[in-house]
Amino acid sequence: MPIAAALKVLVVDDQNSVRQMTRITLEQIGVRHIHEAENGVQAMDTASTQPLDLIISDYNMPEMDGMELLRSVRGHPAARRIPFILVTGRGDRELVVKAAQAGANNYVVKPFTADILKTKIEQVVGRLS
Amino acid sequence: MTTLDQLKNTFFDECSEALQQIEGGLTDIRQGNGSDDTINAVFRSVHSVKGGAGIFGFDSLVGFAHVFETVLDAMRDGTLAPSPDIVDVLLPANDVLTDLISMSRAGEAIPADYGHESRAALERLLGKTEGDDHDGGDPAPADFEGLDFMPVMADQMDDMAGGPADGKQTYRIAFQPQPEMLRRGSEPLSIIRELQKLGTLTLTAETGKIPPLNEIEHDRPYVTWTGTLATEASREQIEEIFEFVAECEVEIALDQPVAPEPAPMPVAFAAPPAAEPPVASLPVHQAPSVAPVAPTPSIEPAEAAARPAVQKAAATTMRVEVEKIDRVVNMVGELVIAQAMLGQIVHNLPEDTSSRLTQILDEVIHHTRELKDSVMSMRAQAIGAVFQRMPRLVRELATKTGKKVQLEMHGENTEVDRSIIERLGDPLTHIIRNSIDHGIESPAARAAAGKNEEGTICLSAEHRGGRIVVEVRDDGGGIDPDRVLKKAREKGLVSPDAVLTEDEINNLIFMPGFSTAETISDISGRGVGMDVVRRNIQDVGGRITIKSERGRGMTLQLALPLTLAVMDGMVIKVSHETYVLPMSAIVECLRPSRSDIHNLVGGRGLLQLRGNLVPVVHLSDLLDMGVDNSESDERVVIIADAGDGTRLGIIVDELLGHQQVVVKSMEESYGAVPGVAGATILGNGRVALILDVEKLSELAVTQSYSFTGGRSRASEPALAS
């Protein structure tokens, strides 16, 4: 059973406010190690150099969007095993299907509560304690 | 302020940026300059607003943004072709979005049907009828039905991307502690321990260099280490370990598998040679592990090479709190003062000691100047931030007044100091209101005058002669001098028998209490007149000038300083007083011969300058210092530009030099003193007043008007301290 406090999570979103809210939500779940990246390039940098247990990435970002990031992560030798949750907007069903095909492990629809996020994370990494 | 409030603020700041993006993008699309990228960027901005609004619980905002976004999405995938008609729906939609954001920010209750029309127009674009259920208002479904992800555990994912690697790479590491290392207290063992933490470490000690026992120095390392490290860590992480021990030769190389390591003497994790010189048998603390076979994917080096370039692109901007930059600005200011003091000391030293110092000081001055410029450029913002609000204003006012107005903007990228940008919004808004309300005529009147029915307001900004010049030009009716004069007489602003030039009449609109509108409209009649506009501009050290051509339009020109904190000044001396004149106002300095100056009464004169006559005045007279200027032989004349192109020669005793000065405001303590722009601290630690050339020029004019033969001008403030 993974321990929430030991999970190392990378939050990717170009909007600082959303990133911080996600951080707060994660902290409510008990996650203590939170990395942040404001775009795909930064995210790749972190994912390829830091030990991570989970990436939670927004889809809608300039330069490199969440899908492109997902593909880069899956193609990177050091990062490709990191579980990936894509954050999407409402009505993006098609996108979620594509994300699943590209190797995403789950998705979460904005806006999300701590409970929803926890459920999604647990579906990916196993029940948190 | 709670964290949540702070986050909301951050969100609203992001919204402002998004709105600018949207407005700019839509304008581009409307003018036919839009590309797919433009639509994408606009879409992304609206989407960001929606996403954030959802998170922070601004539901009305989410609902509207959703419909807006859906239209943009349709444009993105080509279902809707971008046409001016569509943009004409989108621009007002952006206005509604702007309103919703500002209402949300202010915490105001948003009427349920706010922006209803715009929303309906958007929905019509999507082919929906108004009664349709729009999904925007629905609560967000947290799940898409029927979509299930496998609960994928990290270790089950190996086959997902293909390839057998376990993510580890093997590095070949060789390091040789240098003699200084032990003497400085660093020890090789700690490096080995750190390396061990990163993965599977196999090290071999090369003991060949250990001398015979009697030659061993106890604080010299003789052992060199080579081996491999199989790790998921990056090269940087490995290098970091060695970073703190400079006295160590290190080689780290990504290894093609050299497995299993042929280890002639696999002594891993030995005790440090310092503590126990290597005569002793090297104790094995841990069995050496076999280096794992980890074929390194060949893409890695290529990727590593490509990454820095991408990284560079990503790191082009970052957010810094204004407060932090302001602190740097202040420090630069203090630095400039300290430097001036240092300069003074150096100046007073005997030449043999000072020459080298002067050289270095020059360099310091040069760097300080660059530092100042860099910091100022950090504070600078594109004036577009203010301009962005204007298209909407023009659209709204045009609709309200039933006039047709087109807004042209130039030079949006001109950079101006933040503090000025902040105070430019209101005056500009007011000027444009005035232009549309009073300047631009109704379509019928324009047609009758043979003009295009659509009036044009041109808003432009450019750097000109060390200042920023912002111009608002319209092709309306211009100022009607007769009406203005009549009004001014009615209000008692001008005496009935005064004869005024057209220029003087035009400038009457800047008088407090002047308003020509026959009826107070809700557009420009807000109790704020052009006098307030002028005061606002003057408060930031700017000037406003007006040019009007009856029947053809008018131009208001704002000349603003680049920055308010530090400026280039000319230090001058008059009698025993030292003053600073802003360099930006100085055209030239000269030492004319007596015969070039034609003296008039009261110490005034005219200077013959390359065929032109320039009025000259003694600064001491202007400031009423009570100095006798009758023997004015060895005097310097500074030709200054009063801002509107008129020249004034200012006679001073001495030029002390050109210097950067830090502007310290005196208004808080002394109120506004005409002719004084502020004060500064000079190199000798003394305070000098910074003069306002424009005001001096005005003083020169009014004083000569009121000249009555003596030097008694009690009404003028005495500035000599």
Automatic annotation (TrEMBL), chain A:
<dbReference type="InterPro" id="IPR011006">
    <property type="entry name" value="CheY-like_superfamily"/>
</dbReference>
<keyword id="KW-0805">Transcription regulation</keyword>
<feature type="modified residue" description="4-aspartylphosphate">
    <location>
        <position position="58"/>
    </location>
</feature>
<dbReference type="Pfam" id="PF00072">
    <property type="entry name" value="Response_reg"/>
</dbReference>
<dbReference type="InterPro" id="IPR001789">
    <property type="entry name" value="Sig_transdc_resp-reg_receiver"/>
</dbReference>
<feature type="domain" description="Response regulatory">
    <location>
        <begin position="8"/>
        <end position="125"/>
    </location>
</feature>
<keyword id="KW-0597">Phosphoprotein</keyword>
<dbReference type="InterPro" id="IPR050595">
    <property type="entry name" value="Bact_response_regulator"/>
</dbReference>
<dbReference type="GO" id="GO:0000160">
    <property type="term" value="P:phosphorelay signal transduction system"/>
</dbReference>
<protein>
    <submittedName>
        <fullName>Response regulator</fullName>
    </submittedName>
</protein>
<keyword id="KW-0804">Transcription</keyword>
